[in-house]
Design a protein that fits this description.
The structure holds two protein chains of two kinds.
Chain A lengths: L9 E3 L4 H11 L4 E4 L5 H6 L7 E4 L9 E4 L2 E5 L4 H5 L2 H6 L1 H8 L4 H6 L2 H7 L6 H7 L3 E6 L2 E6 H4 E3 L2 E2 L6 E8 L5 E8 L9 E9 L5 E9 L6 E2 L1 H7 L6 H14 L11 H24 L1
Parallel strand pairs in A: 1-3, 2-3
Antiparallel strand pairs in A: 4-5, 5-10, 6-7, 6-10, 8-9, 11-12, 12-13, 13-14
Helix pairs in contact in A: 10-11, 11-12
Chain B lengths: L3 E7 L2 E7 L5 H8 L18 E4 L2 E4 L12 E3 L12 H8 L9 H14 L5 H7 L11 H14 L4
Parallel strand pairs in B: 1-5
Antiparallel strand pairs in B: 1-2, 3-4, 3-5
Helix pairs in contact in B: 2-5
The structure holds flavin-adenine dinucleotide (FAD) and FE2/S2 (inorganic) cluster (2 copies).
GO molecular function (chain B): 2 iron, 2 sulfur cluster binding; metal ion binding; oxidoreductase activity
Protein name (chain B): Carbon monoxide dehydrogenase
Pfam family, one (chain B): Fer2_2
Chain lengths: 294, 159
């Protein structure tokens, strides 16, 4: 059996954020990497897809792990692990879109270690959370030695394994607007087997007015394309309208038309992924409505 | 080359060594502590053969650096039997024929250990989800599920 060791690196395990920022600013030019849950990074290092010279382990910084609501936002620390989101009553009851997406990442052992921040920063096309963040209109707080800035989800995801995070920056916090009354959402993933990466995934977040018309809609597709896509045309078709089956079908069709899946050598055909993006969206809208109306 | 001194408690016994940071926890367990019950299957975090418990949480030990376990407590398959008596999960795998070649078994048992700690009374579906990070190429899983059911009943004192 081949034993896969990563290439040598220098390891740091800072105990506070100041130290992390110092280390990043000192070593980012030489390819320093932040180690969060390691459920993508360590695998990539073992396969020698990447061989960072410096590894900055943030697992000993408890201040990066929290879940709370304040100032109109649900705030989640970047190092918060999937298992803690899955076990949170707040997330389960008030953020069904996030809950469903997290529950369907990998398997329970990977969910013990993987973090929300790692999932977003890695932006692997099959990952669940980038599309979820687009549907929620989330925003991210990032920091470097000279200060912090806020990036909206729609400006964050640039391409496969690419984000607008600079090399000396760290994501510290994810902010999701606190849902209004009559809000719900849903996440559905099509995968080859339980726990596998998405072939296509859909994230839907809906808010209704009291007269039953759509107040806000967030719709995003992951997996099928190189980068998660927010389907603005589909969102616009919903907002202001009263939902019925015909409208939902129309929205599904818009999603299928807009999405441009990548051709994979051994993957399912592009047409199938297009069709499924629409079908999953229809199902997710219906489930969101069911959650709201009961 | 950077070397770090680490001390990891495995099955309540301390093991100390000077290691490179790139050493994976599974290699520390097998090569330095000499505890070869923890297996390496896929090396890509898919098969779960290397599953151990770190400070109470299951981890695929091929996907963590040993230095990250410094000062922490690890439980491996060797740590389950007490005073020569099998742990109820081990007993369940024996009684219910939950294995054939046995390669996946230590990881499967550690995954079950974590599952039953969190949920002492899992349904069949919850058992299947609980071991979804562990692959078995022999059994078809049915008897593994039976074994875990047996263990959950035994641990509640029903057998
Ligand atoms: C078997 C298996 C199945 C999987 N299935 C799924 C799935 O179905 N859906 C899914 O979404 N994911 C899946 N994953 C991926 C998993 O969710 C990873 O945990 C995730 O992609 C990375 O999170 P992490 O915390 O482990 O980050 P790490 O692996 O530690 O880091 C990933 C990258 O993000 C960077 N990074 C991490 N945190 C920060 C931060 N705070 N600021 C800046 N940069 C940071 C790192 O430097 C690195 O480049 C699977 C993984 C495995 C092993
Ligand atoms: S060897 Fe660790 S998961 Fe397969
Ligand atoms: S018993 Fe052979 S792999 Fe599970």
């Amino acid at each position: 059996m081949t034993i896969m060791y990563p290439a040598s690196f220098e390891y740091f395990s800072p105990l506070n954020m100041d130290e992390v920022l110092e280390l990043l600013s000192k070593y980012y030019k030489d390819g320093a990497k932040i180690l969060a849950g390691g459920q993508s990074l360590i695998i990539a290092m073992k396969l020698r897809i990447i061989s960072p010279k410096y590894v900055i382990d943030i697992n000993n910084i408890p201040s990066l792990s929290f879940i709370n609501e304040s100032d109109g936002y649900l705030k989640i620390g970047a190092l918060t692990r999937y298992v803690d989101l899955e076990d949170s009553d707040l997330i389960k009851t008030k953020y069904p879109l996030l809950y469903e997406a997290v529950k369907n990442i990998a398997d329970p052992i990977v969910r013990n270690w993987g973090t929300i921040g790692g999932n977003i920063c890695y932006n692997f096309p099959g990952n669940n959370l980038p599309a979820v963040m687009l549907a929620y209109n989330a925003r991210f707080i990032v920091r470097n030695l000279s200060g912090s800035r806020t990036i909206s989800a729609k400006d964050f995801f640039l391409g496969p394994l690419q984000t607008s995070l600079k090399e000396d920056e760290i994501l510290t916090e994810i902010q999701i607007p606190i849902p209004q009354p009559k809000n719900s959402g849903y996440f559905i993933k099509l995968a080859k087997r339980t726990g596998d990466f998405a072939i296509v995934s859909t994230a839907v977040n809906l808010s209704l007015n009291y007269d039953g018309t759509v107040k806000e809609a967030g719709i995003a597709i992951g997996g099928a394309t190189n980068n998660p896509v927010k389907i603005v045309k589909a969102e616009e078709a919903l907002v202001g309208s009263k939902i019925n089956d015909e409208l939902i079908r129309e929205v599904g069709k818009i999603v299928s038309d807009v999405i441009e899946p990548v051709e994979e050598p051994f993957g399912p055909p592009v047409d199938y992924k297009k069709a499924m993006a629409g079908v999953l969206t229809i199902r997710a809208i219906k489930q969101s409505l069911k959650n709201i109306i009961g | 080359m950077q070397k770090v001194h680490v001390k990891i408690n495995i099955n309540e016994k301390p093991y100390e060594a000077e290691i490179e940071p790139r050493l994976l926890l599974v290699h520390f367990i097998r090569d330095i502590a000499g505890l070869t019950g923890t297996h390496i299957g896929c090396d890509t975090t898919n098969c779960g053969a290397c599953t151990v418990i770190l400070n109470g949480k299951a981890v695929k030990s091929c996907t963590m650096f040993a230095v990250q376990a410094n000062g922490k407590d690890v439980i491996t398959i060797e740590g389950l039997a007490k005073d020569g008596k099998l742990h109820p999960i081990q007993e369940g795998f024996w009684v219910k024929h939950g294995l054939q070649c046995g390669y996946c078994t230590p990881g499967m048992i550690m995954a079950a250990y974590q599952l039953l700690k969190k949920n002492p009374n899992p349904s069949e579906e919850e058992i299947r989800i609980g071991i979804s990070g562990n692959l078995c190429r022999c059994t078809g899983y049915q008897n593994i599920v039976e074994a875990i059911k047996y263990a959950s009943e035994k641990m509640k004192g029903e057998i």
